[in-house]
Records
---
Amino acid sequence: MSNKEEFDWDSFDTKGFGEGYSKADRQKMEALYEGTLNEITEKEVIKGTVVGVNDKDVIINIGFKSDGLVPVSEFRDLESIKPGDEVEVFIEEQENALGQLILSRKKAKIVKAWQDIEAALAEDNVIEGLVKRRTKGGLIVDIYGVEAFLPGSQIDVKPIRDFDIYVGKQMEVKVVKINHANDNVVVSHKVLIEKDLEKQKAEILNNLEKGQVLEGVIKNMTNFGVFIDLGGVDGLLHITDISWGRINHPEEVLQLDEKVQVVVLDFDDDKKRISLGMKQLTAHPWDSLASSLEVGSKVKGKIVNVADYGAFLELAAGVEGLIHVSEMSWSQHLRNPADFVKVGDEIEAVVLTLDKDERKMSLGIKQLTEDPWTKDDMVTKYAVGTKHKGVVRNLTNFGLFLELEEGIDGLVHVSDLSWTKKIKHPSEFVKVGDELEVQVLELDVDNRRLALGHKQLEENPWDTFESVFPVGSVHKCTVVSKNDKGAVLELPYGLEGFATIKNLEKEDGSQVEVGEAIDFKVAEFSKEDKRIVLSHTAMFRDDIKPAPKKAAKKKTEGGTTSTAPAEKSTLGDLDALADLKEKMEGKK
């Protein structure tokens, strides 16, 4: 029994693979084994070695206690994968339900891509990407397998109008922004171009001076001018400095991306604003005007602008003359220039003034026709006593101006409108635009004056009234109005008479009131002053004597004693007066 107790069973008996080692040997072996394994962490990228490839998986050793499997589909971007190749993989699980190590090359590429992108942003590195497609507002660029957004404004320093030309091409970009919340990356190609242009830009600005001629490309166009890229520096070519002639929009003579030569007109101290000119590269058109052009010359051109005061006629690009509205017609009544010309009309004109030093010119249209006041038949056509028709052009307090023909105006005094009606203002008789028939009373060709009359077309009815309303004759009159001096009476034939307060007394001592129709006796008749004074009191009192006849007065524009009709009357209808006169003369 003692031999059995001394027997070492641990060194003799074996129960399976790996057993038969002493405890110390086992610990030594475990230490040697564990020294060949790596400490790994899930969700990280690690390098591994391909140890086998089959139809479904690629077997990869990462130095762990077991090999990992990666679907062979994740290696489609490689032409061939074989044992011994080193690849980066992402550890998804150290051990799944089957005890297998699960790896992913696809996720490793994504993680590595984001690491490279973040490094590119931090270190301001230039990376190369592939433009996959265009999208709203820009392009989608593949960098390290991640889709990044390249805004249209970041493609180039000049505006890009066709994004499709970049699709499918390699492009160098810089990462300018990373949004981890939605895995969004923004890149720029423009910053690379700007960096290349900095040196060129600095050289241009340092050497910039007024009068310098530069070459540039039109990068933007507006209604007030165009912006020109001078090689990294932008300058403004204002619309007024494009051409010596008038243009409404730069697109009439220029187009985008066109290469042009310009001259530096001005720039500020900081050299941030550069004013450019194009027309200044050619001589001013005024300097090449024909020496034969002088006052009185006839010229042809095109109307380029119409204003309230006149129109501008362009004789050549940059050479314009003003046709004032007063020089468009011989008529003295100014009208709107648009009544005579419109933009685009090609017309002929006469040079009235010319100043080549100041580059100013005034033109006239009416000078192409004869001045109506200088025509040979003017004296005979408008001789005193001739009758004409004209259009009322203007009304004043003292009369109206009548246009008989273009350029020939005459004045009709307010007192020459009617024989019977007292007219205080011409508007009581006519309005502007009415046609009026007149007779010439006076003609002064030298001073261009023409006096006209309307009432002279009819005979003076006061010659007849003298026999109808003799002093002492009785007529039924109606009181029209009354004041503290007397009353205005309405007589037959539309005439007005006047009676003083004392002559309005009735036989019973009362006064004749407004609206009352009663007999009045003529106390005074003045054909020259067109005045009739009457009295009702004289109907029953013999002591009321007629007023002494006054000397004839000169014609005035008004007066309280002059007579006037209550309404407009056409004395051509007063045949009854003539008949009455004949009967009265027959009875004598």
Note: Helices lie at 2-5, 9-12, 23-34, 105-123, 190-206, 378-381, 462-468, 575-587.
---
Amino acid sequence: MVADIEDEPSEVEPLPNIDFNIRQGNTLIGFTDVEEVATEEGDASLTNYGGGIGENVQEMYRDVIRSVERHRESESAREAAEARREAEKLIEEYGQHLHKKILKQFKGSGVENITFDDVLGYSPFHWVLEFARVYRDGGFDVIVGNPPWDVLSSSSDEFFAQYNPTFRSLDREEKEAFMDEKLSDPEIKSEWESYQENIRRLTEYFKNSGEYTLQTPEVAGETATYKNDLSKLFFERVLHLVDDDAYLSQVLPGLIVNGEGSKDLRMQLLNETSVQSIIEFENNGIFDIHKQQRFAVITFKNSGRTEDLWGVFDQKDTRPFTNLEEFGLHLPRRVLAEYSPEARIFPWVKSQREVEVLDKILQHPPLSAQVDDAWSINLLPEELNETRDKRKGYFDEDVDNPDYPVYTGSNVFQYQYDDTLSDANDSPTYWSVEEDRDPDSSAKRRIREKRFNAGEPKKALYDDFGGSSTSKSQIGFVNDLLTKHRGEELSEKDVLLDSSEYRIAYRDVASSTNERTMIATVLPKDVLCVHTLATFRPYEINPTEDNLKQSPLHGVYDRRFSDHELFVALGLINSLSFDYLMRTKTDKHLVEYKLLESKLPRLTEGADWFYYISKRAAQLNCYGEEFTEMRDRLGGINPVTDEQERRELQAEIDAAAFHAYGLNRRDVEFILNDFHRVSDPRIMTDAYFDMVFEKYDVLEQTGPQP
């Protein structure tokens, strides 16, 4: 009907001709571009029809287009019927040739046991044939869609529901019993196996055919798991169906906005289209689905580059459609692209002020960035595993004459490594022994073994001394190198444990609704950690030729932080400003890549606020005998243990961090007012937030004075 409108809506016929406007088929399998059906040399099946590229391919559809137009322009029912039969016959005939190319695609995707009849069973839909007139003119002008939100997978619920409508509601044992009964029938068993094989074929096709290239992005150095998400597949497909000046609007699951697996689709939107708006909803009765299901309506033009857009998030009704400017937020490209550099997740912002604050925060480098002459971060997400390594006896609650503790996340709080100052963290319950006492039960021995098996420091020696230019294995090359210089091969004793130095640790388990999301401290030496307490590695490996004579080879380990850098890093990641950013990304855990991609001022010696923050963080953290050495290394600082004095120091760090981020008074007031409050806070009371604001004003006047 839209296609028949020329100048005025009144010109639409009451019953417009829709014979070639509504078509049926599997729209995810088939050709969408005239160049896709260009033949290889010697492809006789299409050469007879002028197969080639560009105009030659369009000539292949010349008679289809002529027949369709003859049908549309017919003045009699007889002539229209004749033209329709002719057009349908030609579409079917040419479609058979394209089906053969689809068969080649399946086989090229790794599906060997497939026949031409199997392909016909998928009902391929060749857009270039079914809408030949549209493709002659460059593609569709408008696409509006609400694709399926399901994941294509082998589902016993789906298959066996045809034999028992209540199958989905059965418990596991009832389902297994019902399946066993039905699968004893050879015919049903064969159908079940065919069903599973069909899903496998489609998965291989969608994943490997080359038709869909935006489904498995790389996030934090790893390829996202392929999931056969139909909404994502349809969304990628529609991008290939439209003219450059076309407009699209799609209703999609909320994961299109914040799912890791949608990264490449979001970057396609930012880089290759002009997005007008994203309106994100919590269902709340809009659709007949779960009320907490999230979805988004995305509207964009299929050309250009997105520099800004209107965004509305967490809506519960459809009012934004009637007045987007009233409800919408203006989102610049930097906020959309830099909020999550690794996964390109779009932030769920609630106000224009939040957008402005985020825009300032995001101008700083991510933790993972290598900044000239600045300290760098390398995370160790798991030192020991609480389940596996405890079961193997490397640490336990009851250890005779233990030598050192093994910490979990509950054993630390901000600037607190034990329970002597407050009840915010627990005393350690796990302990272990030194390697020379009982190597088979020593957690240190376990960690040394894991590091050695992971290639430490073997890989660095191999890379830095030209091992890649030889034909020897890494271990063969390194053993020959060390034997030449020190007379012995590489061994586990050459691994220097991170626990031999003071280091930053943070709780892995976190929530955006906790009093604080980011909880970190500097640990004493000789404290080990399970996986719920991640650490910043204190060392990097930089071998020199002089190191090769050493035994053990500990000289290859250089410290990543000076003592002052260690505590300025601690102060910044414990600050309210960094916490405000992290809690927008956190559900139940501090995901490693989300931490490393988050923006933080990389303060170095001589920079404003460097010593101001470092000194105060050290005063808060370096109490007790465990930090006697560190206090001396810092020039004899005085630790602070009085509760009120500690709160004041922490407020000064929070205020200084706001200044380091370049946030003005209005920004700070917004963050403090917007920061999540808990009903029974330990520290983050209204009085504390008022103190931070007062400190910010004082520092605005005085600057980073001692």
Note: The first helix runs from residue 44 to 47.
---
Amino acid sequence: MDQELKKEFQADLAEFHLMTRKFYQKEISVKEYKGFSGGFGSYAQRGGGSSMLRLRFTGGEITKDKLQFIADSVEKYKIDKLHLTTCQTVQVHNLSDVTVSSLIEEAFEHDIITRGGGGDFPRNVMVSPLSGVEKEEYFDMLPYAREAADFLLTFIKQVKMPRKLKVCFSNSPKNVTHATFRDLGFVARRDHTFDVYSAGGLGNNPKMGVLVDEGIDPSKVLYYIKAMILTFVQYGNYENRGKARTRYMQDTLGPEGYRTAFLENLSKVMAEDSLDLNVQEVPIIKEGCGYLEENFRITAQKQDGLYSVLYHPFGGNIPPELIAPINKAVQKMDQVVLRISPDESLYFINCNKDEALELLELTKDSASNLFETSVACIGSGICQVGLRDSQKLYNTIMDKIRPLDFADGVLPKIHISGCPSSCGTHQIGTLGFRGATKVIDKKPLPAFQLYIGGEETQGNAQFGEDAGTILEADIPDFLIEIGHAVQEKHNSYSDWIQENPDALKVIIQTFTK
């Protein structure tokens, strides 16, 4: 990033330190502090006794230097909770006021920019986690995303937006970054161009993105980003935060009206600015040392003899004690880097056979089937706005279902969000759960709203259907009943639901009545 801008951001940290001290000395309220600290990527946790810090990594990529910083910080500050997010960041939790102030300073020294990690700012730029190495990809997104991320940082001090802005890149129809329904998504095509989608998003009033342009030259990416910001500032809602995300512009302008407004701003930017990119996609040149059979955790890259190793920590929470051995191993491996996935997984990419086997063993306490890779946001145990504890539900479910030893695929990956914000992306889950309350005999009880049939792949993307409210205590049994029904007739949930949609409805009715 631009070093002058970095110095400006670092100078702003003095105010962050001051406001943090005031908050912990109870001189300002939780609301006041949240409105300020979010812009620095930090929030007070529930109860106000500790803080979290969100470390941004463009495309979820953690280089060796950044990994070393995380490992050193875990040891130095005795960090006891690290959470991978669905926006490809690392959240560091349970920090004191002194620790969060020190950590944010030190992060900047390693080019980990937390500015804009929260608040009404451009957020972490997302990229398909295997971009550049995936056999089925159209082309590598990461070089363009890096340019986009640096460009977006320049707007943090220039523009006051109505709400946050999420920009992402998708390298294939798998659409794992949800580029077709984000604030701004660049979707790769076979002909080495992008389709551009805009004004989509999860959460309340979810919307698929509007296809604003097709087949654009990748060198023009920054023009579209600036046009997006101009359109958001021009037509976004500054009066009502509940309707301030970009997707609400579809309600006020209509999809075609929005597209027209976007393209008008795009024409203006192209006439006035010079933002063409000259990006060189650098090939990975590394020798393999043998071959491995692919499995759930080992994927062959398009580079011959190289592999990606999947590590999915349960609930997205990396045990802090594992960071040091991971760091020690990776530091001696040529060109191996880490990539955070939007499903809270972690990939080690560019591994030869021996390196892949070493990392596979080192991270053996990993999800090993589809169901175990289920996604859960950090939940109400930590989050100020969370209604239900997603992590608690995830752990309860796993504790009850693992002993049943269902075959891989019998239960699908589920997505759990503690509130309507969809940080656990419940709306695109095959089965999704969102924190709620259910009243029985006039008594409010902890519950989750069930969503069924969500899908993220390009061309088939759809939001899950609201299927009713289930008591939190009943959700493990609900999933167990589905597992037994699937196991009795089919090898996988996907086959079962296709042939037995009414059977699922019967089970749902039993638990939602």
Note: The mean pLDDT is 97.
---
Amino acid sequence: MCIKVRFQFFVVLIFIFSFLTSAQEKENYIEKNYDKNEYRIKMRDGVHLHTIVYSPKDKTKKYPMIMTRTPYSIGPYGEDKFAKYLGPAEQFVKDGYIFVLQDVRGRFMSEGEFDNMRPHKTEKTKTETDESTDTYDTIEWLIKNIPNNNGKVGMWGNSYPGFYTIMGAIDAHPNLVAVSPQAPISDWFIGDDMHHNGAFSLQMSFNFFKNFGIPRKAPTTQWQRGVEYPSPDNYTFFLKHTPIKKLNENILKNSIPFWDSIMTHGNYDYFWQQRSNLQHLKNIKPAVLIVGGWYDAEDLYGPLNIYKTIEKNDKDNQCRIVMGPWTHGSWIASRGDSLGDFYFGSNTADYYRQKILIPFFNYYLKGIGKPLDSDAYMFDTGSNKFYSFDQWPPENVSASELFLSSDGQLSFSSDFGSEEFSEYLSDPWNPVPYTSKFLDSKNFYNRTFMIEDQRYVSTRPDVLTFETEPLESDLTIAGPIEANLFVSLSSTDADFVVKVIDVYPDDEPNPEPNPEQVEMGGYQRLVRAEIMRGKFRNSYENPEPFIPDKVEELKIKLNDAFHTFKKGHKIMIQIHSSWFPFFDSNPQTFTDIYNADEKDFVKAQIKVYHSKEYPSSVLFKVIKQ
């Protein structure tokens, strides 16, 4: 073994030893300083939910409770086995809280039937339940039965537990005074996890539900293990299982009920509509701190839209939002100082924890300090700084439109050039990959693809690229982005992907250190991207076919961004019709895609227009300088 290899092996061993030692120390601290008790709390319909409570051994004072409700197990189970981590940040354990963990209805050790994204009921009988009532009944029991509590309860959770946190804030128990939904799910058809604008997030959904979706036969402490699929490359695997029904026929074999439900609800019908929580976010009483990541490929839509909905519905609310340069949930324990090829120059996650998260719960649960000063704490991913605003999007923004034009030009003026359109041939059997990395079946998805260099697809003939001249001064976008495209198809359906990209100058210096040997000159950094299934362009409920060769307008809403394009950089827009296998391949025939046959998959000639009559553009919110 050479010296270099031995050294690298030694470094890995040190890292593993340090990690295990740190985790063991945290577990020992909790065991030494907390009592653990397990309860079966009865809901109003008689169902018992399994709940674990960690209480400080010091009984000389009262403590607030902070609760997490999860479908992902609250183990380890057994009053002699202690968790390694508790609360939304490590410091909470040492600050002293009563930690409450609960398996939601129908998961692990709780009784009842589990329902994914269980719909909220606006009207119900005394014994009917939803996530709001289950939270209410749990808090009612805790307040009366857990010693040394101070009568104040907070909730937090990330991802699916973030969904349960915001649901608990609807018709909330009066003792629930503060909640922090982190990466919360809001709508599984429009923008979170399972679909984006009707396009199905194939890779993530399949990898998730093949385990999570297995029906539980009885209360259990064990995870259900689903089928494993041998594949050296996810791209090839999912292409071989196109049409999508092959996944059920060959692998799942109707063993996952929710997957079957997805396959039978291809439009935004009652099934999806009733699972959206945005319609119920009214008169929210607890203080709310929403947390999200600009590079969260799972739930970026949820945090932004839950915040905006509460702001719109409740003018005197106590709702705040923080968005950092993070992937899904990475703000909980990581430093947040780098991602992919980029360094942000600071411990962004620690700033959030110390300056925002801990003060938020300290004020509402312990009466320490004061309320947060601002409504929105947002990280500018181009200047690498946190900024605070009284609202989001901030007040000092103006609309700025970039127009597509001939020869791949992108301009702030409507000078469209000589050609009326740009075109490409989209082949569903040769889809544009969503990442340059080859991932095997053990990888959920590439978590850094939302900041990845796009040069790997820029030269593909089925990808249109438009870019500005080098910017003469810094330009900061802050808020939602909307692409207004005029398109025609040779077929009856297609997907459309729109990417906003920051193009670095050719003389951009490489980072130091540079272990991955990244070439920053000409780097095409993804800032924001979104996909839309074309048949939903006018209605998610009632899809419509395209009329071949007819020009139609297509509006695609991209999630918000906060990014400074620096002087000398260029803004690039890419447009293409597949993003595989993160999203499934559209057959480009107007049909029920989940039951499509191979014969339905056709090549389509796509035209994107840029003329006075059909002025395709991308609209930004720009901070006034």
Note: Residues 152 and 365 are 6 Å apart (CA to CA).
